[in-house]
Amino acid sequence: MKFSRVITSSRVQKNLGVLRTKTGLTPNIFLRFAFCMSLKDPSIPNPDEHNQDGSELVPAVLFGEHEPIYLALMLNRLKKDKLDPEIYLHKMTRAHLNRGAIAVWPRINDLSDFYELVKEERSV
Fold this sequence. Notes:
Elements: E1 6-7, H1 10-23, H2 27-40, E2 56-57, H3 59-63, H4 67-80, H5 85-104, H6 111-122
Antiparallel strand pairs: 1-2
Helix pairs in contact: 2-5, 4-5
């Protein structure tokens, strides 16, 4: 089982561009963190809440060399949510990326905010 290409919502695509200007962070770094933040949230995101009019992301770029770890995290979450990976892997990966990005976005105005957020999450 593997990730397939993911398309962000138009809202997330716009936010990623602004975020890059404000912080210098590439979208893949921000989205990896946002993805994990969404996985940590016990509620199940609704994939239909997010349009597919944004950026297309290739898993190898999005997750880099750690793609197997992110896949394992996602498969574990699907199991916990009692969702069949054959049916839901792509949909729920997209849902978690979008939900996480939308949730984390307002908390970051500059690179120091991102650093503080990461530091805060590491101490939990």
